[in-house]
TrEMBL record:
Gene3D superfamilies: ACP-like (1.10.1200.10)
Identification of the protein by name: Acyl carrier protein
Pfam family, one: PP-binding
Carrier domain residues: 1-81
Length: 87
């Protein structure tokens, strides 16, 4: 999956789960600050990402501060995909 496809899917999840609109240009900005995000909503978001990309987040990454931007999340998803191909 390309970076553009990953970002497009993440933006869809943000829109569907977080009920927020982000445009493609916000990929370098913090996505979870000032968005009235609670721990339940954040976990819903991560579950949706796990389902969409067939990955699993370890417990130590279940923190709002861990993925501050779309690029952080894209990097993690890409690393998981590379790791899965090598396994």
């Amino acid at each position: 999956m390309s970076i553009d496809q990953i970002k497009t899917e993440i933006l869809r999840i943000v829109r569907d789960v977080l009920k927020q609109e982000l445009d493609y240009e916000t990929s370098h900005t913090i996505i979870f600050v000032n968005r009235e995000l609670n721990s339940f909503t954040f976990l819903q978001f991560l579950v949706a990402v796990e389902d969409a990309f067939d990955i699993e987040f370890p417990e130590d990454l279940l923190s709002v501060g861990r993925f501050q931007s779309l690029d952080d999340l894209v990097d993690y998803i890409q690393a998981q995909a590379v790791g899965a191909r090598q396994a």
